Amino acid sequence: MTRHLALALLMGFAAPAAGRAQAAQNATLRRAQQAYDNLEYRQVVSLAQAALRERLTGPERARTYELLGFTYGALDSILKAVDAFKQVVLIDPERQLDPNRVSPKAYSAFDVALRQVLLVRQLRIDSTSFVGGRGAVPIRFTVTQPARVVTRAIGGGSYVIDSGAWNGQVNLSWPVRLANGDPVPAGNYTVVVEARLGQNAFSASQPIRVSHGSVDTLPSLTSLPGYQYLPETEVPPQSWRPLGLAFLYTGGALVGTLGLESSSLGSSSKRELAVVGGAALVTGFVMTLRKPAPRPAAANILYNRLLRDQIARRNQDIAKENVARRQQVQVGVVPLPKPSGAAPR
Amino acid sequence: MSRAAAGVALLILASPAAPAQGGVTVTVGPQFALASYREVAAGLRYQGTGFGGALSARYRRLSAEAGVVRVTLDPATGSAATSGFTATEVDAWVAYDLAPYASVEAGLIRRTADPEFDAQSVGAVRIGARSFYEIGPGATVLFRANYLAAPKFSGGGHAGFSIDLGLGLDVRLAGRLHGTAGYTFQRISRKTNPGGTGEIDAPMQGTVARLGVGVAF
3-class secondary structure for chain A? Predict the structure, then answer.
């Protein structure tokens, strides 16, 4: 247990050193890095300059200049620091310094260096999907000096996205359309941003894939959210109305009979009226006790009719929209991994 | 065979009623009748029973009814009549609903007596209105008033005032089976001039109660 813990601790301390050794293969650069870590700035300068005279990879060269920049910053040689950082950003235009982790002197020197070199940095194209003609691809980049900037998409053809004078953060929208309004053909493209200032020029690129698909059609509605059909019949509350109506109709017959009897013929037999009237009254009484019959609810019927009309109208609109959508193209744009970084010219 | 026929009949009666909307609903069935009849004077009165049948049909706002009843009328207790007779009455109406509870109607009535001269036979045109109301699920009450226009009598004469009042009840008992009841009061102020001796009153007054069942199709 103790041995395992000790081994783990040893590996933890050794890891940064191993990583640094992997990052810098050049021995002189490693020694310069070590001297920088030991705050031996004079030695850093001599070792770094020696390393630059050797065969270095791009990242090693950028790291060497960066060490020089930090060292000159520490030695208050700001102009030299700026020159060193210029070399850094020319080799690696995407290089960023964390203001919380580097000295203010080094950071300001890096910032000045960025403004003295024409660069196109941080070219970003987001994945997006939209109906052709109803959206655009957002393209963002930063130009470090005022320059004439031409943005193109190069693939099956060359399409100029934008051409203008820009400086600083630039946000463009590319509708991915041809001059005639049709969407740009599907395929792989490279968005190239080329900045030119006098004799200086710089370009950055980002490969993308443009795909075409069919536009989703809308489903027909069967109901409207928040609105529900209401029952078209309602059961009225129980009442004495059936018996009352039976009394009214039977009473009408009785009054009519009594009133219309011929005086010369005398009072007619009430046996027949008693039988039928009694049946009507009994029926009325039974119906009074029974649950009333459902009756049409006029307001609900009207409401349901309005709701049906509304849904039908919405479905007509959806049908028209779907006809239009079937003639449209869903354009998808996806950024692809960069085969290589920006290329200073 | 009779059991099978009874089973089929029961099945028809118990099956759900046909929907009234959009189609023709027909109800037909037999009836038992109670009747009383008076003519000319208070002493000439009859009572009796009989059988008949009724048919009704409805199509949207139009409806039609027809009924026939044959009643054997015997002199009532204390009547001056010495013999009875058999009355056969045919009634028919065609009605049009003006409102969900009222309609106008027209029709005819024809009542004949057998033996022919034991009572007046009468025929007339009905013109009137009726009111009906559904007092509960499948239960409807009806009140009608008809003027009997242009009455004709087997013994001659005329009537200045003739009216027919009715009370009706229709209850759906089960499925297609309906129970029906109807009451009719009829008053005809007949006047006649026998032998040219001068016009005398010879009124007629009758009541009929009909109880029956019907099957709706």
Answer: CHHHHHHHHHHHHHHHHHHHHHHCCCHHHHHHHHHHHCCCHHHHHHHHHHHHCCCCCHHHHHHHHHHHHHHHHHCCCHHHHHHHHHHHHHHCCCCCCCCCCCCHHHHHHHHHHHHHCCCEEEEEECCEEEECCCCCEEEEEEEEEEEEEEEEEECCCEEEEEEEEEEEEEEEEECCECCCCCECCCEEEEEEEEEEECCEEEEEEEEEEEEEEECCCCCCCCCCCCCCCCCCEECCCCCCHHHHHHHHHHHHHHHHHHHHCCCCCCCCCCHHHHHHHHHHHHHHHHHHHCCCCCEECHHHHHHHHHHHHHHHHHHHHHHHHHHHHHCCEEEEEEECCCCCCCEEC
